[in-house]
Design brief:
By secondary structure, the protein is mostly helical. It contains four helices and no strands.
């Protein structure tokens, strides 16, 4: 069962714990560049799914039909999750607090453009 959690700390703890099992107890068995590369690979997979959804939405010939849409959306969700999890492992290498970094950056952009939205 997948529990609904919005806690970055819980995600980090479980993500690092699992990664340590794959990497013999050493998260830095992979360099930060390798974690970034894995993240980019998953982002590429997400982009490919998004391309297929665009083709479907614009009815470009390519062997897809409306029955493929829900499967593609679920695949996109999976790839986005993979990107996030590798991003979190990259951040863990430098002990970056993801929630703090996201809030800070979001608010900086809102300030720069005089938008009222804040986290």
């Amino acid at each position: 069962m997948i529990e609904n959690t919005s806690s970055f700390d819980e995600i980090r703890a479980q993500n690092v714990s699992r990664a340590l099992k794959w990497h013999n107890g050493n998260l830095l068995d992979w360099s930060p560049l390798e974690w970034a590369g894995a993240m980019c690979g998953e982002a590429g997979e997400a982009a490919n799914v998004a391309k297929k959804l665009k083709r479907l939405d614009t009815k470009i010939i390519g062997g897809l039909d409306e029955s493929d849409k829900s499967r593609l959306i679920q695949k996109l969700a999976d790839e986005i999750a993979d990107v996030f999890l590798y991003l979190d492992l990259l951040a863990a290498c430098y002990d970056i607090d993801m929630e703090l970094a996201i809030r800070k950056k979001f608010n900086e952009v809102s300030d720069r453009h005089e938008f009222s939205e804040r986290l």
